[in-house]
Design brief:
- The chain has six helices and seven strands.
- The chain has about 240 residues and is an alpha/beta fold.
- Helix 4 packs parallel to helix 5 and helix 5 packs across helix 6.
- The termini are far apart.
Length: about 240
């Protein structure tokens, strides 16, 4: 079964990439590191940490290829909604195992495109202490490598979740080595595959661990600290 017809048109991501680059580079001292690690062709998943409101726009702009990001559906109800639709971003209903959104993203991967996702599910410290399984499901179903992405500088400790970085401040998007998850087979069983749930959990933890390590190392290498708090307006 093909899911490509359910995916946003590729030209929308190309438009978003161009618009994003123009805005981000004009407003901030933004730089990309390790962009050459992103495969130049074929399906790719960009999995990024999430601390600030502009993370999606910044990663989209600094990525070497146009991408369709999974974005909270509630964001489409705001003033930026029309722009998100126009640029081919994919609305995601958080916490509901949104199969429609994942199917649309899978269609992007099936045609050899790039999908962006924030495995943490929302803005926080960005240290990947916890992460969802959606990225692993997409990687397994779409046969796509996962590139860990560290997005740094978009929120400082104490700032609100919807705050913007100071104009011309330094932002860094650091792309790590791709992680390839595979459909493993259990060596203890003759030809038997590992149960799907176990395979998914293993892949999700492998991706989470790789992303957490990459974010930590990138933060130290670039000298940009992660926020030391959850945004005040997200406290329980």
């Amino acid at each position: 079964m093909t899911h490509e017809k359910l995916a946003p048109a590729p030209w929308r991501a190309t438009l978003g990439h161009r618009v994003g680059q123009g805005l981000v580079r004009s407003l901030y001292a933004a730089q990309a590191s390790g962009a050459q690690r992103v495969p130049s062709t074929g399906p790719v998943i960009l999995a990024a940490n999430h601390t600030g409101y502009l993370d999606g726009a910044v990663v989209l702009a600094m990525a070497p290829r146009p991408a369709h990001f999974l974005v909270l559906a509630s964001t489409f109800e705001l003033g930026v909604g029309p722009l998100l639709h126009l640029t081919g971003q994919i609305p995601l209903e958080q916490g509901r195992g949104d199969r429609a959104a994942l199917t649309s993203a899978l269609g992007v991967l099936e045609r050899g495109g790039v999908v962006g996702i924030f495995p943490e599910g929302g803005r926080g410290r960005g240290d990947l202490e916890k992460a969802g399984k959606g990225v692993a499901w997409l990687a397994l179903q779409g046969h796509a490598p996962v590139v860990p992405v560290a997005c740094l500088g978009t929120r400082a400790t104490g700032q609100l979740a919807d705050s913007w970085p100071r104009l011309r401040s330094r932002l860094v998007v650091d792309f790590g080595e791709p992680v390839a998850v595979s459909r493993e087979r259990d060596p203890r069983s003759a030809g038997a595959g590992i149960p799907g749930r176990v395979r998914l959990e293993r892949a999700a933890e492998e991706i989470r661990s790789s992303l957490a390590s990459h974010v930590r190392e990138a933060s130290e290498r670039h000298g940009i600290e992660l926020p030391r708090d959850v945004p005040p307006d997200l406290w329980d």
